[in-house]
Structure formats: C-alpha cells, structure tokens
Amino acid sequence: MKKLLALLLALCLPAGCAPKQLPEEELPALTVIGVSQMGSESGFRVANSQSIHTTFTEEAGYRLLFEDAQQKQDNQIAAIRKFIQQQVECIVLMPLCVTGWESVLQEAKAAGIPVILVDRTIQVEDESLYAAHIGSDFQWEGEQAVGWLEETFRDTEGPVNILHIQGTLGSSAQLGRSAALEKAIGRHENWSLLARLNGDFIQAKTYEVTAQWLDSQPAPPEIHAVYCENDNTAFGAIQALEERGYTCGPEGVRIVSFDATYQGLTYCLEGKISLEVECNPMMAPLVEEVFQLLKEGGTPDKHYYTREQLFTPEDLTREFIDQRAY
Ligand code: GYE
Asked: Which CATH superfamily is domain 31-134+281-295 in?
C-alpha cells in the first residue's frame, strides 16, 4: 500500500513540478505592517480593505497584520497597542472618529513607529503624532454636492425640503459633509431641513431610521432632496421612501450621495440617485509609496488628497461603470 502511495505521489509530483522551497535563512525578510481598519460598514470600506490586501502582499515583501475594529474606537486603540508590542514597521490607521487618539499615538511615537492615517483624518494638537494622512477632502466633497443642489433648485421659489442622513457622528467624513450642507441651509432662506437622521454610513440602520421617521409624520411630507452621506445610506433611504410610495429621481425626490461605488453608480445610471460625489477607496498604492518614502528617510506631505469627480446620470454608461475598480 505504502509503495503504491509513493508511486502515485511520484507520478503526480514529478521533480520539476514540486513547489520550490527556499531554506528559511534565504527567505527575504518581510516588512511587517499593522493595519487598523474601522470595520466593514459600507461598499467603500470593503473596497478600501481590498485595496490594502492586494497591495501589502507577501509577494510584494510585506507581512500584513490586519485588524477589523467592528466600528469601535476602543478596538482600534487595542489593535494599535498590539501592533506596538509586535514591533511593526508602520501602523496604518483608518480612524473611526476625529477625537481620542492622543495617548495611543504618543505610545506609537515613543516606540518609533510611524503612523499613516488613511481615508478619514483626526484632530490632534500635535501633528507630529502621525506621519501623513491620505484620503479625501470631505468638506470639498460636501461643497460639490451643495453646489449641485443650488443649481438644481435655483429657480425654485417655494420651499426646498431637505432630509439629511448623516454618517458616523464625529467622523471626519460626516463632519465635513454635514458642515457643507449646514452652511448652505443657512444661506438659502427657502431651504428647510426636514430632519437630520443618523444612518451611521450603514444601509440597514438608515432604512430603519428613515422608515421610522416617515411613519411618525402626521402626513407624508413633501421631500425635494435627500442628502445621504454615503451610498449605503442612500440605498437604505431609497428603499424606505419607495416602499412608502415616493419616486426617487428627476420627477420625484432628488437623492444626493457620496462614494460612487459600483451599486451607487448603477442607481445613478437608472436615475434613482441624481448626483454621485466620488470618494475613492483605492488608496493603498499611495500608502505604500508614502511608507517607502518614510523608510528612505524622506518627509512626506502632511495630507494627500485623492482626485475625485461628480457623476449625474448623463455622465454614465454601463460600460464605464463595469470597468471601474469598485
Ligand atoms: O464615504 C463611507 C464610509 O470615510 C470616506 O466611510 C469614508 C466613508 C465613506 O463607510 O461609505
């Protein structure tokens, strides 16, 4: 029996096909990177994590330690402490919210480990607590959305009723996008805020809070626009609205959204979403560049902003959406 097995193995694995194994001491040393991702709340986030996994591979010379914090800052802080103990060469942090990072970042600094912030940013007095931030300018994104609303409702003399669905409260993405809308509401006498709901960037939660709010109104409110702070909140809001007889699109409620994910752009092509403000999650190649620069002793810029664009249904085709990476 043993002989038969050996023969079979020999037949299946001729010498040339056997996987080559270098002796341990000849393996190139891998650079250990610790990534604290905040969670997987949205399509954007899933694409962002994928970008990290496909960039920091063993083939490229990295050992990736990846921790998903499940939307809890405490978990992110614990992950950073673990990375410090493991003496990683660099910490990449997608910070859930803007405050509460000082102590743990001081610990990283004391250990001589550079921290690169990705996507969202933080508020700290001592900017030397992080080496660089790579992400989007959320206030700019908000202003693009508001500019489109101003253009769309320029000739409307009656009220423009807006429902505002916010992302995770206290995150830089929420703060920037909300600030742009709040300023615009202050500028336009006929713009009125119907309600501000917390969707947490999550589809199911947004569906719930929107449905609850709609059902608690004495009569179905007239809604001209819904300002959704990401695609998943847009999907949740659209579902709640459509179930209650609203139409989303140029003849009905104008949905404004951020991210421009595959599904978001598909809704935009169909007309359900009137405006998509892109927010690019594929940031890992730039993270790698900044890390390499740090490794060579260089000083990176403090902020790198990704280039983004706006989409309305007329700008889109199926082919265009299909060839995008997220
Ligand atoms: O828009 C949303 C997400 O921080 C830019 O977080 C990011 C936002 C993004 O979960 O979908």
From this structure: Response regulator (3.40.50.2300)
Q: Which fold has domain 138-279+312-322?
A: Rossmann fold (3.40.50)
> Measured on CA atoms in the order 286, 292, 295, 297, is the torsion positive or negative?
negative
Q: For residue 259, list its beta bridge partners.
A: 278
Alpha helices, H only, the chain:
2-12, 43-55, 73-85, 102-110, 138-152, 172-187, 203-215, 231-243, 262-270, 284-295, 318-322
Instruction: Tell me the angle at which helices 203-215 and 231-243 cross, rounded to the nearest 10 degrees.
Output: 40
Distance 202 CA to ligand 1 centre (A): 10
Q: How far is CA 235 from CA 6, 173, 228, 247, in A?
A: 58, 18, 9, 13
Each residue's pLDDT tens digit, 264-304:
999 999 999 999 999 999 999 999 999 999 999 999 999 99
pLDDT, tens digit (0-9, with 9 covering 90-100), for 223-265: 999 999 999 999 999 999 999 999 999 999 999 999 999 999 9
CA–centroid distance, 311 to ligand 1, in Å, is 17
Token pair belonging to 67: 């921790």
Considering the entire predicted model, what is its pTM? Answer: 0.91
- Whether 9 shows a pLDDT value over 50: the answer reads no
Quote the ligand 1 centre to 96 CA distance (angstroms). 10
Q: Which residue ranges does the chain devote to CATH 3.40.50.2300? A: 31-134+281-295, 138-279+312-322
d(CA 199, CA 209): 7
